[in-house]
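== Protein entry: sequence and backbone fold ==
=== Local backbone shapes as whole numbers ===
==== Amino acids and backbone structure tokens ====
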Amino acid sequence: MSRMGIQAATTMRELQNKLDLIGHNVANANTTGYKTQMANFSSLLYQNIDNFSDEEANSVGRVTPLGIRQGAGAKVGHANNNFTQGALINTERPLDLALTEDRQFFEVAVTENGETETRFTRDGSFYLQPTQTGDSALVTSNGHAILNQFGEAIVINQGFDDVALDASGQVVVRRDGITNSEATISVVEAIRPQFLEQTGQNLFRLPDVTETDFEAGDIIGQVADVNVAVGRLEGSNVELSTQMTELIQTQRAYQFNARTISMHDQMRGLINQMR
């Protein structure tokens, strides 16, 4: 295959990745707290031909010569997350919370392969799950433990009459007619949200900070004054009209590149017939 065909085939593969990303966004249009992913493309430059011989065109200080650049198509350089606020939906459920600020998250504990890791979510639909000791743990819809401001799982001792959450993230428990706050839900803010990685199940995680120039505290930090909406959930920020527009544009780009390969094959066939 010629260089033209290689460029088209490489770009088609990456356009398919964008189509998959759009499909993922559309599938999660009704997922609580879901954040839209956007694909950013970058060119695959692998050869720079210097076709200038004069010194002015290639003056001292230039990093690359001012010449012809030949590449092999494009690739998805990075998938960014759009952390803008989604619409709030009234549920009137006392264990539903909605974060009202961008880039804020609830902390949850996720156990995989015997290891427990702290992850972050915007999904505030919480539930009470019985434990082996007869107490009740506050968990997400997927059963992951909600953490307090000290990084510990929130467990409510047995014998309570009612449990509710307030606008400051307090877990309010009523026992024998007396109401007390027994825990505080941890809310953190992403200082550098571009570093957060999606892990599935509507969760994010911190990257391996040993590979960066930052520490964990430079990427995410604790929120002191928590302000949440009780009895409400944040809807996804997916705009279906935008996703459909992106889908049409990506499909057309895919068709153009497929047509390039087809025309290239036709041209090679005509040349072979002329021999």
Q: What stands out?
A: The CA atoms of residues 126 and 140 lie 5 Å apart.
